[in-house]
Amino acid sequence: NTRCTTFVSYNNDKLDQLLPLRDVVEGIEDSLQFWSEQYDDLLRRVEQNEHHIKELRRRTEKLETQNSNVSEMEAEIDNLEWKSRRLNLEFHGIMLTENEDLLKKVNALAPDVELPPLPDDAVVAIHRLPSKKGKISGIICRFARQADRDKWWKNRNKLRGHDDHVYILENLTK
């Protein structure tokens, strides 16, 4: 009987020690549940972010391709503009007069650049450029042949000795 009492007493002591541990275990379980939910939420966010990153990469690649295409098109436009202007020269400093014959005015420079006057069929188009306030508007001349245009361009520096205000420029893209 004493043995039984001792055994029961021993077990009661152990139970008394274990009962407070139940609260600790329940607290740990609650904490574990909370952190498990936090972890699951974090995993969802990581998956969403990975999806967003993948979508952003796809969009970035698309934009880079489009940007590359735009750059190629701009280069092609510049090339086409250059080709369309390669037959042109600009004549600046030639005074504006009423009812002017622009080809005659350009041909008046021919002796100064040591070239023969241009016949009508050597020029496709000739007109005044829009003028800036207080400035004499230039004349743009589109030559029919590259060789004629190049002769005038090559001899442009010969104008310096005749009239400092008259000069020739290439008609370049902006």
From TrEMBL:
The keyword Coiled coil applies. Keywords: Coiled coil. The keyword Coiled coil applies. It comes from the Eukaryota. This is Putative crack-1 is transposable element. Residues 25-90 form a coiled coil.
